[in-house]
Design brief:
The complex is a heterodimer of chains A (196) and B (156). Chain A has 196 residues and is of the alpha+beta class. Chain A is 34% helix and 26% strand. Chain A folds into 2 domains: 63 residues, no CATH class; 107 residues, OmpA-like domain (60s Ribosomal Protein L30, Chain: A), CATH 3.30.1330. In chain A, the strands form 3 sheets. Chain A has a 4-stranded mixed β-sheet with strand order 6-9-7-8. A 3-stranded antiparallel β-sheet of chain A has the order 1-4-5, with no helix packed on it. In chain A, strand 7, helix 4 and strand 8 form a beta-alpha-beta unit. Chain B has 156 residues and is α+β, with helices and mostly antiparallel strands. In chain B, a hairpin with a 2-residue loop joins strand 2 and strand 3. In chain B, 21% of the residues lie in helices and 49% in strands. Chains A and B meet through strand 1, strand 2, strand 4, helix 2 and strand 8 of A and strand 1, strand 6, strand 7, strand 9 and strand 11 of B.
């Protein structure tokens, strides 16, 4: 009984505050692409944001769609946008066929990767192995991870901080060049280095 | 009869022990959700009743709460490459974070109690619709990408 009264009071108090929650969808600052956000009000109402600077305001039982001009966006959210962590940067490395040794071209890229690491606060390096579609999914999951681990070991030898490197294997899920299953494709047998 | 079954039980016992260890290991070493990349002013992480001052390089975990003071702001990069930036007087709870680095399956759910937040979503939202959610007191956002800002408690 008391609890129910408490809840009723809380609802009245919350409704009384009438704050408005806002969400504004932005174009990607690099590609310019615009995503999508489905805004559902807790007290009903729904708006799908799918255009640049689309805004949804939720409160008082409604969700209202609107568009924000870039000037007020910069004024209101400029600091938060400027403080977003740097985007991760990707590098592609290739191994000598049938070996886990990096090709000479790939070894030449290592100084650029180290520079990128040095430029970032609390940097992390993610080594992601990929395979072509020859073999089963499970086999390629293991192979891609082994490939990533081999490259990680070489990066450590070359002076990368061991504590900051993590490995992942994506198997055959993310081919650079799409192929049918069981088709050998050297460009898909690669290791991606993400610095973030 | 007994003689023959005993070794099997022994194996089973070792298996159980292994499972117990695996479970314990998972509990003792939770999955890192993200790393704090920038801190300005007063920023606090609340984790299981403890309050820790946030520092660059510190990991955050599922169930952590990040609180910025009136002079505070913080930037966090998550394991799936999602980027978050918290404004001043902001209160953010990491409700759920799970990310499979092989399949990119996962879940990323946060609650913005108050304040301002800028987001660039990462691999979880890109891979799976409905996997990334942002809750506010008045709404639930289903994020399908990519860059957006949220404000709670603004007078408007």
């Amino acid at each position: 009984m008391t609890a129910r009264l408490g809840c009723a009071l809380l609802v009245v108090v919350l409704a009384g505050c009438a704050t408005t929650d806002r969400v504004i969808l932005l174009p990607d600052d690099i590609s310019g692409k615009v995503g999508k956000i489905d805004v559902v009000g807790r007290d009903g109402g729904e708006v799908l944001l799918d255009s640049a600077y689309g805004e949804a305001r939720t409160g008082g039982g409604k969700v209202q769609g609107d568009t924000l001009d870039t000037e007020s966006l910069r004024k209101e959210f400029g600091k938060e946008l400027a403080n977003l962590p740097q985007r991760p940067k990707s590098f592609l490395l290739y191994c000598v066929n049938g070996s886990d040794q990096l090709t000479l071209e790939s070894r030449d890229q290592l100084p650029a990767i180290l520079d990128e690491v040095a430029r970032r606060p609390a940097p992390e390096v993610v080594v992601i192995g990929h395979t072509d579609r020859v073999g089963s999914v499970e086999y390629n999951d293991k192979l891609s991870l082994a490939r990533a681990q081999a490259v990680r070991d070489q990066l450590i030898q070359l002076g990368f901080d061991q504590a900051r490197i993590v490995v992942a294997g994506r198997g055959e899920r993310e081919p650079l060049v799409p192929t049918d299953d069981e088709v050998p494709e050297p460009r898909n047998r690669r290791v991606e280095i993400e610095v973030r | 009869m007994n003689q023959r079954t005993r070794p099997r039980y022994r194996v089973f016992r070792w298996l159980l022990l292994g499972v117990a260890f695996a479970a314990f290991g998972a509990a003792a070493d939770p999955e890192v959700a993200g790393i704090i990349k920038s801190v300005e002013g007063s920023v606090t992480i609340t984790r299981a009743d403890a309050s820790l001052p946030a520092q660059v390089g510190m990991p955050v975990y599922q169930a952590d709460r990040v609180i910025t003071g009136a002079d505070g702001s913080a930037g966090i990069t998550f394991e799936d490459n999602s980027l978050l930036s918290l404004g001043p007087s902001t209160n953010l709870n990491i409700d759920r974070f799970a990310f499979d680095t092989t399949t990119y399956d996962g879940a990323f759910e946060i609650t913005l109690g108050k304040g301002k937040l800028a987001v660039i979503s990462g691999k979880i939202a890109k891979h799976q619709q409905d996997a990334m959610k942002v809750r506010t007191p008045a709404s639930i956002l289903g994020v399908r990408g990519t860059e957006f800002v949220v404000e709670v408690g603004g007078a408007k």
